[in-house]
């Protein structure tokens, strides 16, 4: 949903610092280094060049004069008739009890309605190919789940400070978890791994990525440019240079379109989904599961809407499948109010994000009831 994507990535009032800006200076002496161009030409050579141009122009005029517009149109029609006709029919058959949410998108080529369902099937395969294991930090000698939470809370603030896209934040956390799952990291290098992951994600997602000096500055020069570049090599090699794991945001946009929800419901689902990022016990869930459960809870709190057949089809999950995750989300919502890590709640208290973190529905009896049903 293009409008929702623009809404997510709008300016939330915090600008990226402008220090260390690179100003490109004009190249000097360029005019003196251009070869094969005579500095002076004799009058005779100028006349020869001019006459040759006139002859070429007169020939082109004669050629164009011989070609008639009707002949050109006939050639175009003949060419069109000879081209094969490709039927842009969807390859995935939609059940009769499910609404075709892409039925009106055929005239917009950017929405690729003829194979959008195939794209999401492929994304479901990709997320299963790059899983995060349950308790993936168990093999880390120094890094714990609490340290990870502190790091992510700080990265949310950095992301807001640099005014980056939402995709960049989710990809940063994905890179961090995939890296910590396979490589042992010292406690002193955890922050370096975090900023380097955001540096990589920025180059992948952003049109204008922050300069590496900005990340040195944001760490108060704790790490140098060389440290970040070395960590970048280690991370990319550990991930086999594969950064194509889908993000929860990708699935949430599709689900919001299937549910035909308004911006507030979508925004609350985003807030709930982002609250799962610092929570170590939620890291092993698939992005599509987090997205479906977040939208389910948002719909229940704001619209009291059922999980329809259309939502179940496009999300890939029935109500019974996501209900255990919804209960954990309610517990996270309840505990976030008293948590020391408040970066996400402060972020979503902005008026440009509809102040969804301050909604009274977050303290509703439904949240308290579902949160209390979670086994500690």
UniProtKB/TrEMBL annotation:
SUPFAM superfamilies: Cyclin-like. SMART domains: CYCLIN, Cyclin_C. Pfam families: Cyclin_C (PF02984), Cyclin_N (PF00134). One of its GO terms (molecular function) is cyclin-dependent protein serine/threonine kinase regulator activity. Residues 246-362 form the Cyclin C-terminal domain. InterPro entries: Cyclin (IPR039361), Cyclin-like_dom (IPR013763), Cyclin-like_sf (IPR036915), Cyclin_A/B-like (IPR046965), Cyclin_C-dom (IPR004367), Cyclin_N (IPR006671), Cyclins_cyclin-box (IPR048258). It comes from the Eukaryota. Residues 153-237, 250-331 form the Cyclin-like domain. Keywords: Cell cycle, Cell division, Cyclin. CDD domains: CYCLIN_CCNB1-like_rpt1 (cd20507), CYCLIN_CCNB1-like_rpt2 (cd20509). PROSITE patterns: CYCLINS. GO terms for biological process: cell division; mitotic cell cycle phase transition. The keyword Cell division applies. PANTHER family: CYCLINS. Belongs to the cyclin family. This is G2/mitotic-specific cyclin-B. It comes from Araneus ventricosus. The lineage of its organism: Eukaryota, Metazoa, Ecdysozoa, Arthropoda, Chelicerata.
């Amino acid at each position: 949903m293009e409008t929702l994507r623009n809404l997510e990535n709008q300016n939330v009032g915090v600008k990226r610092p402008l220090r260390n800006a690179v100003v490109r200076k004009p190249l000097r002496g360029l005019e003196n280094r251009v070869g094969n161009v005579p500095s002076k030409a004799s009058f005779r050579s100028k006349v020869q060049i001019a006459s040759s141009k006139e002859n070429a122009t007169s020939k082109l005029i004669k050629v164009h004069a011989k070609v008639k517009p009707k002949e050109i149109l006939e050639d175009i029609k003949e060419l069109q008739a000879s081209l094969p006709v490709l039927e842009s029919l969807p390859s995935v058959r939609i059940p009769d009890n499910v609404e075709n949410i892409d039925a009106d998108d055929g005239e917009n080529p950017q929405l690729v309605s003829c194979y959008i369902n195939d794209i999401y099937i492929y994304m479901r395969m990709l997320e299963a190919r790059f899983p995060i294991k349950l308790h993936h930090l168990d093999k880390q000698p120094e890094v714990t789940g609490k340290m990870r939470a502190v790091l992510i809370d700080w990265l949310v603030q950095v992301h807001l400070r640099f005014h980056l896209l939402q995709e960049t934040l989710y990809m940063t956390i994905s890179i961090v978890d995939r890296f910590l799952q396979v490589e042992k990291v010292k406690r002193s290098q955890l922050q370096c791994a975090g900023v380097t992951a955001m540096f990589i994600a920025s180059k992948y997602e952003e049109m204008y990525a922050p300069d590496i000096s900005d990340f040195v500055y944001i760490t108060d020069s704790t790490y140098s440019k060389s440290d970040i570049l070395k960590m970048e090599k280690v991370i990319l090699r550990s991930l086999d240079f594969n950064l194509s794991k889908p993000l929860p945001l990708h699935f949430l946009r599709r689900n919001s379109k299937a549910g035909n929800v308004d911006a507030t419901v979508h925004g609350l689902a985003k807030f709930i989904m982002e609250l799962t990022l610092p929570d170590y016990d939620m890291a092993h869930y698939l992005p599509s599961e987090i997205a479906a459960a977040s939208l389910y809870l948002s719909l229940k709190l704001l619209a009291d809407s059922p999980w329809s057949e259309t939502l179940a089809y496009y999300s890939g999950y029935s109500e019974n499948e996501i209900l255990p995750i919804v209960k954990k989300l309610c517990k996270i919502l309840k505990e976030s109010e008293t948590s020391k890590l408040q970066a996400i709640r402060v972020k979503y208290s902005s008026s440009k994000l509809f102040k969804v973190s301050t909604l009274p529905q977050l303290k509703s009896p439904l949240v308290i009831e579902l949160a209390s049903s979670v086994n500690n």
